[in-house]
Amino acid sequence: MRVNKEYLFSILLLCLAFILGYATLKNSKILPNCHISKFVYYKNEQPYIVKGIVESEPVSKDDKTTFVFRTESIQSDDSNRNCCGNILINLKGKEALNYGDELILRGSLHRPFSKNNSSGRSYRDYLYNQGIRFIMNVKTEADIVKLNINKGFVLTRFSIWLKQKIEHVIFKRTSFLTAAVLDAMVLGEKRNIPWFVNNSMMKSGTLHILVVSGFNVGIISFIIFIILKLIRLPRKLRLVLTIPLLILYCLITGASNPVVRATVMAILFIIAYLMKREPDIYNSLGIAAVFILMANPRQLFDIGFQLSFVSVLSIVCIYPKLKLLLYIESLRPRFVKFMLEGCLVSFSAWLGTMGFIAYYFKIFSPVTVLANIFIVPLAALITLSGISLIIVGSIFPILAPFFAFSTELEVFVLLKINAFLIGLPFAYFYLP
Amino acid sequence: MFNLTNDEQKVIIFLLTIAFIGIGINFLIKLNTPVKILSCYGQDIGKIDLNTADKNLLISVRGIGPKLAQRIIDHREERDGFKDIEELKGIKGITNDRYEKIKDSFIIK
Hints:
The complex is a heterodimer.
Chain A: H1 2-29, E1 48-54, E2 59-61, E3 64-76, E4 79-82, E5 86-92, E6 102-110, H2 123-129, E7 132-138, E8 144-148, H3 154-173, H4 176-187, H5 195-203, H6 214-230, H7 235-252, H8 257-274, H9 281-295, H10 303-325, H11 334-361, E9 363-364, H12 368-395, H13 400-422, E10 429-430
Parallel strand pairs in A: 5-7
Antiparallel strand pairs in A: 1-3, 1-6, 2-3, 3-4, 3-5, 6-7, 6-8, 9-10
Helix pairs in contact in A: 3-4, 3-7, 3-12, 5-13, 6-7, 6-8, 7-8, 8-9, 9-10, 10-11, 11-12, 12-13
Chain B: H1 6-32, E1 37-38, E2 48-49, H2 55-59, H3 66-78, H4 96-102, E3 106-107
Parallel strand pairs in B: 2-3
């Protein structure tokens, strides 16, 4: 009877969670009366004047500045109305703007392009999933009026400031290529990665190391824990202090889906330890998914969200079964066992994500399993060296070149190994 | 299936109920958000100050090329600045038609 009651509760819980998810998704598609899209008319060539606040860190590249803008009012044809909703701003030239600036902008508004790529997804879908319905093109500096500064969330402002300081150290101390790789691995900023590096990592199935993921959050947690241990703080205090530092790191890296997933899971594990409870990885993963989807249910259709959760789920489900099946536990010597375990983790993640990667990127890479065994430990080493460089470069700049040289060497070796692996026969195939 | 205690089950049901109510309230707010008419911004937003604009800024106006932009700058320097937008008519290359097209893009501060 007890078992039946528990079983019934579980079914009820799943049904309620499903209905709640469906309602949240439907609700997210309903736009409020004051949404900006209700005031923008099709084929209206007149420029619009929009007031609002810079919602993301402005990115300047190729004489163009791009950022997300949270609108507050819109003026067209001599009438000005309050409005809400985010738009993407494309600004000609490089402007000194920051997150949290309150601006009035003048320019044309249009919907994002809806041309589908090979996997049937369009730029419009991508922006819709981010909650962005329109793009505004601002042509000259005369079309920008700065009203106020520092209007954004204090913690986000601080994390963007810190990120800029860290980027300054990285780019000052290392060559452009190494700095670009470090910027991606440590801060999740991919804008400087050359296309050939991106392309070769995609072919070998190791592109995940160039975005901040659960792997990086794990390394950062480890570093934070070690530093706090070095200053001899008690264990419980160390764990408690790790939580805000992980949240700060999550904000610095732009709070992408894999980082939020890993941060929520790490925090749940720490809380479980503090409460002397056994952490359950499936429940932690579920809570992380609910956390992300409650904030933005359309993230369910985001490639990063799908790959991040599927890879963790496949490692958790498939890896222990493979380990039992192949009698890995009894293997000797230990380094063989260690290597085989690495292989199996990589193989499990590959099995889980293979279908998604083939569908979205039209590529099938058998070399992924082998590549991850070499690339992942090297990427961990580069992340550790990079963070050491940032700390030493900020405190003892005179010692920074030594750390910079070793990081340069590690990045060079990583790119060479990757180039060798994708040169192997049957390393990867493009799908029709 | 989830191995939850009685108290945990109650907490989860409570949280789900709150979430359902929250979605309902959010839905109602979306439907009933008032749209207010606000006072318009000044008419000079997006207009280029003839007395401070550099060549690139002048070129950004539709109908002005690099040569004409340079002539406008030369005229400004010769006359120690513009006092009226109509002075543009005195510059070689600005016909009455062109003046009518570009005059709304400028302001003199």
